[in-house]
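Hello,

Our lab assistant flagged a job as stuck in the queue for most of the afternoon. It eventually completed. Since we weren't sure the result was trustworthy after the delay, we are filing this so someone can double-check. Below is the sequence as submitted and the structure that was eventually returned. Let us know if re-running is recommended.
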Amino acid sequence: MNDLVRFESFIRVPEIFYGMIGITRYGEPRNTTKARLKQLFFWSSYANTIFCLIIEHIYFFRAAGNFTNFLELTALAPCIGFTALSIVKIMTIKLNEAKLNGILDRLKELFPVTHLEQTRYRTHQYNLESQMVMKSFSILYMILIWIFNLLPLVSMLVNYLMSGVLVRELPYFMWYWYDWHREGLYEITFFHQNWGAFDSAVFNLCTDLMFCAVILLMCLQFDIIAVRLRAAKDDPQELISCVQLHQTVLELGDQLESIFSPSILVNFLGSSVIICLVGFQATSQISAFDLFKFVLFLISSLVQVFLLCYYGNKLIEASSQIPYAAFQGEWYLADVRYRKSLLFLMARAGKWQKLTAMKFSVVSLASFTGILSTAFSYFTLLKTIYDPSEK
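-- returned structure --
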């Protein structure tokens, strides 16, 4: 606890995943040979993920006319949604890379750097929460994607030991114009699907983690403002400094919304359907292998949406404490001019900072319950339409 917390500690985990997919990490030079090679790797990974999405769609539409493939289609649809969402999310980061780096630069300038400041503003607690949430979510996502990727090999081995016949399987339903069962082609196809699935998972993961990290850093700044306001007495300069910091954080919040708002809207629209279809698969008559992976998929989908909504709600709560913190200070000992200035701050702070999905929905825990309610409605409708006993 005596060690200083570095700003980079808050974004270390998403930055690690950025490095895995070829995105230049925060603070790295961008005009070097290494940076150009990383750019080439990113765009090749992105192109492969789009190609996977295309052939998933082709497979889906070719099989859609046959109702006997209904379970197969509802197993493929969440994977299509997951891949499409990952493409939208990572492009959100890529198109707004300079703006996001600008937000991080400003937050780094505001970050408390001395032992006294970090103790006073509970920076260690914020860092502990950041590390715990990000590492746990990352482990969950990596377990999910590698179970999906490698479970076919386990299934092939079990079938071979029981029957003596090797039946090649792929992790995902995709359309290929060649016979992927052939030796050599199978290995290439298996690697291609694993690469695309891993990139999809990392695209989703690093975007969500960076979103949470930035919000956590903004909440830290709101806490700093609240602490300073409670301790302020008749000090006009301290009040002016708090007002300026508050205005800066509000502006950063608006910039953050402009970056992530489109992807959040797509996320919210797609999450209800994905959760519904994954839940439908988990409650259908499927093998134990498939049941395990779809239950894990369902848990991961719920946690992913919950994290976005939880941190959106956390930002609302952090910003809403400002007028109360101002009232809790010793303003009654100050002169009339100081009191009037404090009233202006409280009036502005009464409009809480919040993030929205393109103004359609506020990112909060209430949104999470709405998504679950919609997903359950879709789920019950789907279960009513499809009855395995009548197939």
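-- support follow-up --
The delay was a queue issue, not a problem with the job. The result is valid. Residues 7-386 form one domain. The chain has one domain: 7-386.
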